[in-house]
Amino acid sequence: MSPTPLLKSGAAPETPHTGLPSLPLPLFLLQPILGHVVARIARLYPEIFERLGPHQRATFIIDPVNMPFALALRPEPGNLMFRAVSRSELPKYDARIAGRFLDLLRLVDCGEDGDAMFFSRGLEISGNVDAVVTLRNALDNVDGSIAESVAGMFGPPGRLALNVLRRMSQQDEKEPRA
User: Fold this and answer.
1) What would the pLDDT profile of 40-77 be if each residue is shown by its tens digit?
2) pTM (2 decimals)?
3) What is 27-172's CATH number?
4) What SS3 string covers the chain?
5) Residue ranges of the domains in the chain?
């Protein structure tokens, strides 16, 4: 990690996507949680990985642009990887899916059409588009909500958090986009 440049004002620089101070994030704290999440999803929904075919070995960057980090996903069944990464140190990837956090949440919560989001410019796709389409199709074919399954892993606090995010998402959908 490169050192943060010193500023005359003594304030930390802002991250370009969030406006939040660019402070070193303890992403290592998220890694065990994300590892547990992807392992649980693999157990609950093995058909996702089967449908990915040759794209199981692809590395996807999921970039919630209004969050201070991105996520790296490699859905290879014997070698699953899902971790938080600094935008300044993204691993080599095959495809990148970027959008606002609540838009990305709607994609895994059965609440949004990925094609409609892409064409309305709510999502930015780069790299191997075929891999992204295959991933989206695999997620679309899941019965139920992946977000709900993940929230359930954390019991009542997880379900409460998901419900709050859903309400925020509904409110967000009503507000005009800039």
Assistant:
1) 999 999 999 999 999 999 999 999 999 999 999 999 98
2) 0.78
3) 3.30.1050.10
4) CCCCCCCCCCCCCECCCCCCECCCCCHHHCHHHHHHHHHHHHHHCHHHHHHHHHHHHCCEEEEECCCCCEEEEECCHHHCEEEEECHHHCCCCCEEEEECHHHHHHHHCCCCCHHHHHHCCCEEEEECHHHHHHHHHHHHCCCCCHHHHHHHHCHHHHHHHHHHHHHHHHHHHHCCCC
5) 27-172
